[in-house]
Amino acid sequence: MTPLRVGRIVALNMYPIYHHLEGTADPGLAFTDGLPAALNAGVLTGALDVSAMSSIEYARNADRLRLLPVASISAAGAVDSIQVFSTVPFAELRTVAVTPHSATSVALLRILVGPDVRFEVLDGPPRDALDRVDGVLLIADEALCGLRDELAPHTTDLGERWEALTGLPMVFAVWAARADVAGARPDALRSLETRLTDAQARYAHDPETVVRAAAERFPFPADYIRDYFSRLSYGFGPSERHGLTRFLELAQGAGELATVPGLAA
Questions:
Q1: Which of 160, 169, 207, 222 could disulfide-link 243, Cβ–Cβ 3.0 to 4.6 Å?
Q2: What is the pLDDT of residues 15-51, one digit of tens each?
Q3: The pTM is what?
């Protein structure tokens, strides 16, 4: 049987999981690299079988997908890698150039700023965009580099804002497969679920091995990576389900989602 085509987010935030998935050297998995928006599209168009997907994009297409309810990318508070960089304080934002790489972060920002702030898609260097808009929304390693390089006088961590609003963890991404793949290859998906659960356990048991490997692969020192990883979690337990449900409810209220899907137990 052909390998399961798996999306691989090429950012520091998911490295603890992919490090261990890669380490299994499983010939039944074939990885394709990309940022969340590209991997979302890959699953929906059939170029990929399964991937970590933006949680809002999963919800928008839940009737075509099957959730793998064992893993996520979540944070209970400040996350560093979902940031608005701005020339004015957050409460004074009127225009924001938003990353094209993350549907969840854009929907979260809409929830937090309300309907009156104008969004445009960021299509050039963030520093140039700040000459014409109040702020830019960046994610993943680009946001981490923006913090390091002091891109703007004001920074706002959307994970921190979400926790202040709801007191719940923010689920930025979930794992999902196309429904036709789930029907045709249930054993392969169950095996992947087992590997995702095992990757979480192995990382929790020995985080330093992952930190050292990440420092060789990404442009950040080990001490920074260690602190950054401590802000993230990768499970999908009751608190993550609660946080995701609340996010989707608020996204629906903000006009970002038509229907809130049920979540697998």
A1: 169
A2: 999 998 887 667 889 999 998 899 999 999 999 999 9
A3: 0.93
